[in-house]
Design goal:
Blueprint: E1 2-6, H1 13-26, E2 30-35, H2 43-46, H3 62-71, E3 94-96, E4 99-103, H4 116-128, E5 135-140, H5 146-150, E6 158-163, H6 167-182, E7 187-192, H7 196-206, E8 212-216, H8 220-228, H9 237-248
Parallel strand pairs: 1-5, 1-6, 2-4, 2-5, 6-7, 7-8
Antiparallel strand pairs: 3-4
Pfam families: CbiA
GO molecular function: ATP binding; ATP hydrolysis activity
InterPro entries: CobQ/CobB/MinD/ParA_Nub-bd_dom, CooC, P-loop_NTPase, ParA/MinD_ATPase
Length: about 250
């Protein structure tokens, strides 16, 4: 199964990716996390792992990828045949406790251009990736909905949105529900850092309580660990149930 995890900036996408990945791994799943957020610099710290080499570098780097795209009128195919997790080249992933981490690429300096190269590479890679029954790939998307425009969500089986208590999340929940529907992809939600009042507002925006897999209050220790770039630890029965429900989802 391939899962897209999305939401507004600061909603806790990377937190939920990290925590869910560890629950999948504890349940015996082989997990691949794809960090496709070019502005996220801390996901590996949440997992207590080192960052691998950026996957765009496997194809020559961002400039080379952009050149190939432009010379082919944006039709260049970077991969041939189907890929398995075991085909990912050494050095372009790190691994710990049943979890592999890949990084598409990051913005490192001013004026280096858009992230189109990284998005194109990851869309093509995910489309070629073939998973076995006990394998799960989780894509940590960039904030907002640009990944829908890039077509990356076309390649996943399930979309999971993380909602924090904000007007932007309430509106984005509706929009992502619409976009997922157009792609005919199942969409679910995790409400993060909410109290009773904000929970009601977000539930109303989502409209279907069956689509809400977990509701998480503010956890001071988790917030502190996320702020300091430390490994995230949270024992939460709702997250455990969310992982189980995702595994039972019929695609």
């Amino acid at each position: 199964m391939k899962i897209s995890v999305c939401g507004k900036g600061g909603s806790g996408k990377s937190t939920i990716v990290s925590l869910l990945a560890e629950r999948f791994a504890a349940a015996g799943k082989e997990v691949l996390i794809i960090d496709s957020d070019e502005s996220n610099y801390g996901l590996h710290r949440h997992l207590s792992m080192e960052n691998p080499k950026e996957f765009t570098g496997f194809l020559g780097g961002k400039e080379e990828v952009l050149k190939d795209m432009m010379l082919s009128n944006f039709t260049h195919q970077f991969f041939e045949g189907q890929w398995k997790l075991s085909d990912i080249p050494k050095g372009y992933y790190t691994e710990k406790n049943g979890i592999k981490l890949m990084v598409s690429g990051k913005i490192h300096q001013a004026n280096e251009g858009c992230a189109c190269a990284m998005g194109t590479v990851m869309k093509q890679f995910v489309s070629r990736l073939t998973l076995e029954e006990n394998q799960i790939a989780i894509l940590d998307m960039e904030a907002g909905i640009e990944h829908f425009g890039r077509g990356l969500d076309d390649e996943v089986d399930l979309i999971l949105m993380v909602c924090d208590p904000s007007y932007e999340s309430a509106k984005l929940a509706v929009k992502i529900g619409e976009l997922s529907g157009r792609l005919q992809k199942p969409v679910y939600y995790v409400l993060n850092k909410v109290d009773e009042e904000s929970r009601k507002v977000l539930e109303q925006a989502i409209g279907d309580p069956e689509r809400i897999l977990a509701v998480l209050p503010v956890e001071p220790e988790l917030t502190k660990a996320a702020l300091l770039g430390q490994k995230l630890i949270l024992e939460n029965s709702e997250l455990n149930q969310a992982a189980k429900k995702i595994c039972r989802t019929q695609i």
